[in-house]
User: What shape does this take?
Amino acid sequence: MMLRWCVRVLLATLAVTGCSSDPDSPLGTDFADGGLIGSDPGTVFQDTVTITFGDSNFVTSAVLSAANKITVGRLGDTETAMLLRFNFSNATAEDKAKQVTDAFLSLSPDDMSDNDSFNVQFISMLDSLSNTLSDTLTSLNLAATAIPDPGNSGAVDRTMSVGSTFYRLEPDSVETWIFNEGHNGIAIVLMDATTAKELSWKSKEQGAGKPFLRVVFNDATETRYQIGNDGTFVTLLNPSSNLRISDGVRGRFFLPIDLSGFDTRSIVHDAILTLSVLPGSFTVGDQSVLIYAPTETSLAASRRLAGAGSVVTIDGTPKTVVRFRVREVIEEFIASPSTNHGLVVRFTLENSQIRQAEFFNSTAAPGLKPFLSLTLSDAPTFP
Assistant: This one.
C-alpha cells in the first residue's frame, strides 16, 4: 500500500496535467478524476464497531512492591497484608553454628499520627515471594499455623500498632532460616474481620528506617539481617462485573476488536476508542491510562502501543468518557488480520499506589458499551 502511494506522489510531481472543473477528491488532488495513473479514489466513509462480547478483566500481580510504604489492614474496597523476606546471605559459618535465643522484627512507622492497633498473625510463606496472578491469600501458599509470639506465651495472635517498632519472632524458626537459608518470607495478615483502618510502615524503598531482623545468639552476640524484598499484598474485597483497571492488584482489561468486515486494502484516517466511565470509580486524583496491543501469547505483554493517542491523562474532575486515538494499530489490524489480538487498557505507572477505576462493559446499555469510531476510505480502483 505504501509503495503504491509513493508511486502516485512521484508521478504527480513529474507530470503536467490540464485543469479540471471537477471538485477535489477528499483524499487530495493526487487522486482527482482523470489522474495520471488512471485510478479512481476510494470513497471516504465512517463506521462504528461496538464491542458486544469477549471483553474481560485479568490480573498480572497482587503485590505492590515499589511503594515507599508497606501496609496491613482493611480500608474501602481493599484488604492488605505485609510481605517480608530477609536476606541471610551474610550469615557466617559461625552464625549457622550458634543457637538463636531471641529474634526481633524491626519496623519503622510511616505515619506516627495514628497509634491505632488491631490483631494480626505472622505466617511463614512456603513459596518464594514473587508476583502472583491472584489476589486471594491462598495464592501465597502460607503455612497452616502462624509463627508463635514468644513474648505472649506462644500465642499466634498479636496486637500490631504503629506505636510498636519491635516484634518478637520464635527463635527456632529464625534459626532454621539462617541455617538452611530456606526462608521464603513471612506474611503479616489481618485477623480482625471488623476493622476499617490501615496502618503503614516504611519499606526498603525509603532506605533509612527499612525493615530488618535483629538476632541474638547464645553467646550474647547479635547480627542484623537486612530486608531482601518487601511488599504489600492487596486483595480487592468487592469483585466487579465492570471493566476495571487497578493497582496494588495490578488489574487490566482486554477488549476484542472485530474488524473482519473491512477490506484489508482500506485506508484508516482516524480511529477513536471510547470507554464510558462508571461514575465515581476513579479512586485517586490525576491518573494516566494507556492502551496497548498485546502479543499473541500473552495479554500481559505489550507488543506495541496502540498509536499516538495511546496515553490519556485523567484529572480529578468527574468524567463520563475516556477516549483513545488508536489509528495506527487499527490500520495494522485491518491490513494484517493475523496481528489483531485485541487491545488492553491499564494504568501507566503500575506498582506505585493502591487505586482503581471502572468502565462499562459489553453488557451495558446501548451507548455505554465500549465502541470504536472509524473514518476510512475504500482502496482506489484502477480501470
In short: Residues 307 and 326 are 5 Å apart (CA to CA). Confidence is low (pLDDT under 50) at residues 1-36. DSSP finds four helices and 23 strands in the chain.
